[in-house]
Amino acid sequence: MTFVVTDVCIKCKYTDCVEVCPVDCFYEGENMLVISPDECIDCGVCEPECPIDAILPDSDSKAEKWVEMNREYSGKWPNITSARAPMPDAEKMKDVPNKMEEHFSPEPGEGD
Predict the structure, then answer these.
(1) Beta pairing, strands 33-35 & 26-28
(2) Across the chain, which distance is largest between two alpha carbons, in Å?
């Protein structure tokens, strides 16, 4: 089992989750985070830290399509282990539905 980041994170990128992860399995894209399903130990400490509920256990039916996406981009993007300020439009973007199609960027973030 693993936890995954969903498209709710896109253009918000709150990083509270990164600070509490005991195995540093978060990776940073230009406008979202992902979790490496191969590194995640399924402890769940990250899930309640996300203020916009963008993190789900892979056992949740809404998480199914995000496992492979998290796996793919955790292999391409840099590791992030320290919290940063959210994206400038995070508050405005947090409730926008279906962000993957219109707002996702495959570009890497800065990482640590």
Answers:
(1) antiparallel
(2) 33
Residue 29 bridge partners (DSSP):
108
CB count, 10 Å around CB of 90? 16
Q: CA-CA distances (angstroms) from residue 96 to 16, 19, 38, 83?
A: 20, 25, 29, 23
**Torsion angle of C-alpha atoms 48, 52, 58, 61, degrees rounded to 10:** 130
Could you tell me how many residues make up the chain?
Answer: 112
d(CA 37, CA 12): 21
Residue-wise pLDDT for 60-93, tens only, equals: 999 999 999 999 999 999 999 999 999 999 999 9
